[in-house]
Amino acid sequence: MPLFSTYEYLQRLEKTKESMEMLGIDVLLITDPANMNYLSGYDGWSFYVHQTLVVLLEEEQPYWIGRAQDANGAKHTAFIDTSHIVPYPEDHIHSDARHPMDFVASFLKDKQKGNRRIGIEKDAYYFTAKCAERLESGLPDATFVDATLLVNRVRIVKSEQEIAYMRQAGVLVSQAMRVAMDSIAVGVRECDVAAKIYHAQISGTPQFGGDYPAIVPLMPRGEMTSAPHITWSDDRYREGDAVIVELAGCVRRYHSPLARTLVLSPTSPNVTDLAKVVVEGMESALAAVKPGVRLEEVEQAWRKVIERYGFQKESRLGYSMGLNYPPDWGEHTASIRRGDQTVLVPNMTFHMIPGMWLDDFGVEISESFRVTENGYELFADVERQLFIK
Amino acid sequence: MPLFSTYEYLQRLEKTKESMEMLGIDVLLITDPANMNYLSGYDGWSFYVHQTLVVLLEEEQPYWIGRAQDANGAKHTAFIDTSHIVPYPEDHIHSDARHPMDFVASFLKDKQKGNRRIGIEKDAYYFTAKCAERLESGLPDATFVDATLLVNRVRIVKSEQEIAYMRQAGVLVSQAMRVAMDSIAVGVRECDVAAKIYHAQISGTPQFGGDYPAIVPLMPRGEMTSAPHITWSDDRYREGDAVIVELAGCVRRYHSPLARTLVLSPTSPNVTDLAKVVVEGMESALAAVKPGVRLEEVEQAWRKVIERYGFQKESRLGYSMGLNYPPDWGEHTASIRRGDQTVLVPNMTFHMIPGMWLDDFGVEISESFRVTENGYELFADVERQLFIK
Domain spanning A160-388 has what CATH number? Predict the structure, then answer.
C-alpha cells in the first residue's frame, strides 16, 4: 500500500512537471531511489540494480521501469497503475551485452520520445557513467539535460504527513541515543553497543517500529573521533576515551538524525571546552532560525560564536534532509553554510551538525528540526551536552 | 590499522597492474568502495561523497583522494603512506561550482598524466555520469577506457585470511538466521524480528563482533514473498503467512549471505512442494561444484531437477561475493547461470540462491560456500529446509 494519498503523489508530480517545463524538458528519468519513492511510493532494496522512473510531461502517472523480479514489489508499494509498471528481463542484470538503460532507450523510442529533451540525474548515486553512455547511444536524436536535484528541490518543503513521520523518527533517535549513552562504558565492546542501538532503532516503540536508516551508526572512539565516518569494531572502550555517536531514527524512509559525544573519565579539558563552544554556537544558530531568514545568516550566527573562542570550521554546519536511502540521509540541496541564499520557509527540515574535528579529537553535538511559523521545532529530545561518565 | 599485511595489499596491486597492462592503461581511477578497500585497506562510511583511489602503473602505492574530513580515517585504516593521502577541500561538497573530479583531474595533470590512457569504472555505483563528464572536461588530452570490474575480477579468488573472515561471517549468519526462525510467530511484529536479527548480526559472538552487512535483512511476508527485495513493516505475522528471510553475516566487510523460508501454519501445499524442488535442485547443483567445472554446468544441474518438476527460473542461480559495501554484497563478476564460462578454482566464493518467485508467493533457500580442492565448503550451518511452525 502506498504511504501517501494519490492526491499527494499527484501534487508532487505537478510540482516536478513545473520544474521540467522551466528547464524545457519533456521527459525526466529519475534514478535516485528517494526521488523514485517520492514520486511513486515505490519502496524496496532494489537500487543495487539499475531502475528508473520515467516522468512524461503529458501523462499523469509516471512509469516504473525495473528488474522483472521487482515488479511485484512495485505493484504493492507504488500508487501507479499496473500498466505503468514495466519490467525489464533478467538477462539485463550484470551483463556485458545488455544494459538496463538500453531497455529504457527502447521504451522511450516506442513512446515516440527518442528525439526529445530528456532530463537525467547526472550526479545521482546510482546513475553511472555507463547509464548515460547507453542512453546516449540508444537515443542519438535526443538532447540530454542535467536535471540533478530537480526532484530533490521539490522535496525540500515537507507535507504534514511527512513531518508526522519525521516526528516519529525523532522519538526513535532519542530512544536509540539514550541506549548508546547508557551502554557505552569501560570494558564494553563497541559492537555490543552498536547492536543495542540497532535494536532500539528498528524495534521502535509499541506504537510504531523503525525502518533502516540510510547511514549506519557512526561511532568513532578515542583518536578516531577525528575521523567522522568510522563505524565500529570489536574493541573495548577504555578510560579516557571520547566517543562520538551519530545516528538516525527512520520511519517509512523519513529520517531524524542526531549526534552526541560522550567521554569516559578522565576527561580532557580540551574536549569539555570544545563541547561548550559547540553547544553555545549551535544555540545561537538555532535562535536565528525562522521563516524569511537565509541559511547563510544561520551559519553566521554560529561562526560569530566560535570565532570568539578562536575556532574555525571549514565544513558546512548542516543540511536539508528527510526521505532517503543509503548511502545518505541528506538531500544535497540547501546547506547551512556561507553563501547559501536559501530562504527558510515553514516545514523545511534540517540536520544542524556542528561537528568540530581537530587533529587528534573531535566533538559532534547536533539537532534535527523543522522550520515553524516563527522559529523551529526539534525532532529529538536528548540533553544537549557533552555526556561524561 | 589495516586488516591485511602490506605484502597482501601489494600482491593485490600487482595483479591489478597486470590487468591494467593488458588493457593498455597507465592510470586507474577506482571509485567502487569495495575496490578502494581491497587495494588500500581504506574503510569508512564516506562513499556518499565522491572519492577515488588512483593506481599508477609505475608507483608501488596508490593515492587516496577524498574529502578533507575523511583523511584521518584514511590514515588510520589504509596501509599507504601519509604522503599518498590527498584530501580535497570541503567547498567541493554538493557544490554547483566545484566537483571532486575537478580536483582529481588537477591531481593527474600535476602528475603529468593528463594525456594518458585512464581506466575508469563506468558502471560502478558511485561513479556518476557527472564524474565522467568532469574528468573528460578537465583532462581533454586523456583517453578514457572502461575498466568496470577490473578489480572485481582480481577479487574473485580469496586469500586464506579473507576466507577466515567469511567463515566468521558464516557463524554470524547462522546465529542471526536461527534468531529469525525462532522469533517469527503469529502476532509478532515484523520490526521486532528485524531488531533481533540486527542484534545477532552486530553483537556477534564473545570471540568476534559483526560489521554492518551491505544489504539490510530482506523479509517479505505473505503475498509479498513474490517480491524479493521488500524489507519489513510494523505489521504482525498472521496464520498461514509464508516469510522469506535473506540476510548476511558480515565480518570486517566480508559477507556470508543466507536465505531461508518459514511458513506459519496452516501451510499451503504449493509452498511445501516448491520448497522440496528448491532443496533438491540446490543439492544437485552443489554436488556439481568442484575445481575445473564451469559455472554454467552448475546451473545446468539445478535446471535439470526443476524442469523435471515443471518449473523454470529466469533469474540466475547465484553469484560471486565477499568483500563489499552497500548497496550490494555481490561482486558482479561470475554468475551461476546459462552461458557463464567461468571455470571454478579453489577459494572462489559464491552465494547460491535458488529463489523461485511465482505470481503470488515465493521460496528462497540458499547457501554460501567456497570452492575447495575437491568440492565445496559451506559457510553457514542452518538446516536446509522449509521451516514450518
Answer: 3.90.230.10
